[in-house]
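As a warm-up, study this chain.
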Amino acid sequence: MSINWGPFFIVPSASQRTLSGRVVLRESFDEELLKKEPDQLGYGHAAIKATNPWYYRRKNTESWIKIDESSDRQNNFAVPWETTKLKNGEYQVLGIMHVSIKKGDDEQIIARQNIMDVTIKN
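Now compare it with the structure written out below.
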């Protein structure tokens, strides 16, 4: 059974998916649900750190371009994204949440992704 602990983009409303200038990307995860997945993988409740790299691409293209990454959980893995150099149009933003889990000396990384369609309008 798959447990959807996230990641979840923090976007106040659909109208906020039109971006202009310098924006801040944020993402969160459900810590209670996250505790269940390591259990299923045989690691117990051992999430020790989380990192979230951010990427973007023009819609209907293949390659992702890295924006930045954050390990700042208290600020929802926030990273600034300067969109003024991009052409107006449809883009996608990708957040990949990496969570390190540990059992004894054995450390593994589990990851989940979230993709959001946005419009750049500068």
